[in-house]
Every structure is written in structure tokens, then in C-alpha cells.
Amino acid sequence: MDEADALEDIDAFYASVRWNNQFAQLAHLPQHLQTVFDNGKTVLEKYEGIVDKNSKRSRNSSQLLKLDDNRQNLITQVYNPESVGHSVLQRQEQLLSQKPQWHPPWKLIRVINGHSGWVRCVQVDPVDNDWFATGSNDTTIKIWDLASGKLKLTLAGHVMTVRDVAISSRHPYLFSASEDKLVKCWDLEKNRSIRDYHGHLSGVHTVDVHPSLDLIATAGRDSVVKLWDIRSRVPVMTLVGHKSPINKIYCLPVDPQVVSASTDATIRLWDIVAGKTIKTLTHHKRSVRDLALHPTEFSMASACTDDIRSWKLPEGALLTNFASEDTGIINTLSINQDDVLFAGGDDGTLSFYDYKSGHKYQSMASQEVPGSLESERAILSSTFDQTGLRIITGETDKSIKMWKQISDATVHNQPGLPWVPTLGAQRF
């Protein structure tokens, strides 16, 4: 077996396990629903059911969904009420046996002040990990030294709030999206704006650089995704489908090459060759405020109010429902290589999750800057550095905060929040 086949088998096994953890309990109807279902049957249907049971045929009357052979065998062994006395208790035992990975807790190490408005976006240099850029309501973009936190450069050119920045790993360019309807390209060698991209009808909320093509993707209040040729400034494609403003967009090197999240409560996976949607994810009930791509696994996470979910790419299959019912409005998500998912709340709450199991192992309030208002507690943006050892947050108190893991923490002296899984957490 070559390496590609081995990786494919591992990926299939991982998806199967995650599928079973999330949806296995849906294989059979609950007893009270089965009773209602049986009472509505005709006499002939009841007779056919008795014959089927006596001849030990398949129980199609209680099947909610079709399963392949491997999953059917696993569910038959573990969840069959005839082979196990109490299937609910058995499912609870299966949940309890899934121990989430332990992660060290995080603490604040530095507060950086310099912006005179809300810090709307933050991105770390993807090449050398030496600096990071922030965009703010004060219309400026500031470049900071990652090690010392000192200001290196201020880029001024927009006339309204800078909502997002994207740093290219293949060009010396930084792209910024603003509510003034402009997308600007900044030359980091000349430290000035060299191109403007005109075409959006309203404010631009998000921008991302395609990892392998000379394209950038932008989206905003006009509810469309535009793909631009970096050098010619020509909008080569407009992707139409969302019904409301788009909050976040990401580009991937393989299909789906564009993923977008909108206030219409949907996530769309786009085929940029055909210029249309591959799949629309409608699981969220409210505005999807942010997306985050896993740095090593081909999956992503999305967040709206009280709801964080992870998805397997490229097909967009649901992987995990996170224990996020009490987190409130979530503005930003970030994931590092150690399977830590960070969620920044609109009330200033920092939540840290184990990405694989969905367990929240740490929750704390951000430390406000002295003199800031009580209402200025929201976390608007976040990103891990390239090592995954530090996280940078941009907040409404106009500050930038850096956090890192406690180095001397162990599973004994810092166990984190308890792992108490419930069957109710396994939502569909």
C-alpha cells in the first residue's frame, strides 16, 4: 500500500469515527416516536411488520437513514437495543470514553496600544513570522514587530474603517478591504499603495489571497464575491448567490477554492471554474460571523451566536458540534496546529476548545484597558502566529493583546474545565 492509499484509508476511518460520534444515535427512532409511528399504521402494515420481525428481515420501519456496511455493522453491535439492555446508557458510555486531548491554559503576556479606533483585523506575516498587521476604525493599517510589540510602520490611504487585511506569501504585497468600497494593494518594499480595485457597490468586509493563482477574492455588503487579477486590477469573476452581506471569505488551493460566510446564515462552497456554488451549508440559524481553516487538516470551523461547528472539506460534511451553547455572540475564530480552537466573544470572553472533540477546556474574560468603557469589551479579530504558540487579539478598547500558553502547566495542576458530554450536545 502506497502513502496515498494509506492517507486515504486514515482519512476515511477518521471521518467514519467522527460521523459515528455525531449521528449514531439517529440510527433508530426513540420509543415514544416509534409508538406514534406504529399507531398510525394500517392493519395490513402491522401484519407485514409482524411477518418481517418473525423472519428476521431488515427493520426498515425504524431506520432513519441509509448506512454503508461498515457503519451499519458498528451500529448494530453497539447501538442495537436487542443486543444491549439500554442503548441510551450505552451511548452515554461511548461519549464518556472519548477523552479530549489536554491543552495548557492561556494567559495574557502583552497589551499593545497605538490605534485610536476599534481593531477590526489582524494578520501575521506568513513567511518569516516576524511581524503582524492590524486594521482599525481609525482608517489606518499598522505594522508591528511580533517579538517586541513595537510599531514599525503606519499605512494611511483609506478614508473609512479598514475591515480586513490579507498578506500574500508569494508576493511582497498586503491587501486591505475597507468600508470606503475600495480594496488596496500595498507594496511592502516601498511601503505605499500601488493599486486600487474598484467595483464593489458598498463597503468591502473581507479579502483573501489565492494561495496558488494570482487572484484575490473580496466580498462585503453588496452580497457578491469578486475575484480580481492582482496585476491588471480587472474583476475576472463575480460569484452571486448570497442574500445578505458577506462577513468572511477564504481561498483554498483546491476545490472548493473559495468559501464564504454570510449574514444570511449560510456558508457557500464555490466552484470558480463553473462560477457557481458547489454546496450551501444551512445548519446555522443566525449570521455566520467568521470562518477558520485548520492549518494541517482539510477542514474548517464556523461560528454564529452560541454555535460553533466544524466541517470536513471538500464535501462540507458536518464533523463536530462544539460545546458552545453559553458563549453568546462569537466574532472571531482561530485554529492552530495543536488542535486548539479559539473563539472571541462580543462580551470579551475568550473560549478555548479542543478541535477534535468540541470540548471547551478554558474560558476567561479579557482584561480591559484602564479608562475604557464598560461596553468596550468585545473581541473583534484574532490570529495565531505561524508557530501556534501565541495568539493575537484585536478588541474594541482599541488595544491589541497577545496571549500564550502557561509553560509549566500540567494535566494535574491545570486540568481545565471538566469534560461532561451529554447526549443533548449531539445535535443534528
UniProtKB/TrEMBL annotation:
Start and stop residues of the WD repeats: 112-154, 155-196, 197-238, 239-280
Subcellular location, record wording: Nucleus
Listed SUPFAM superfamilies: WD40 repeat-like
Listed GO biological process terms: mRNA splicing, via spliceosome
Gene3D superfamilies: YVTN repeat-like/Quinoprotein amine dehydrogenase
InterPro entries: Prp46/PLRG1-like (IPR045241), WD40/YVTN_repeat-like_dom_sf (IPR015943), WD40_PAC1 (IPR020472), WD40_repeat_CS (IPR019775), WD40_repeat_dom_sf (IPR036322), WD40_rpt (IPR001680)
Single GO cellular component term: Prp19 complex
Pfam families documented for this protein: WD40 (PF00400)
Keywords: mRNA processing, mRNA splicing, Nucleus, Repeat, Spliceosome, WD repeat
Subunit structure: Associated with the spliceosome.
Family: Belongs to the WD repeat PRL1/PRL2 family.
Stated role: Involved in pre-mRNA splicing and required for cell cycle progression at G2/M.
Protein name, UniProt field: Pre-mRNA-splicing factor PRP46
Organism: Zygosaccharomyces bailii (strain CLIB 213 / ATCC 58445 / CBS 680 / BCRC 21525 / NBRC 1098 / NCYC 1416 / NRRL Y-2227)
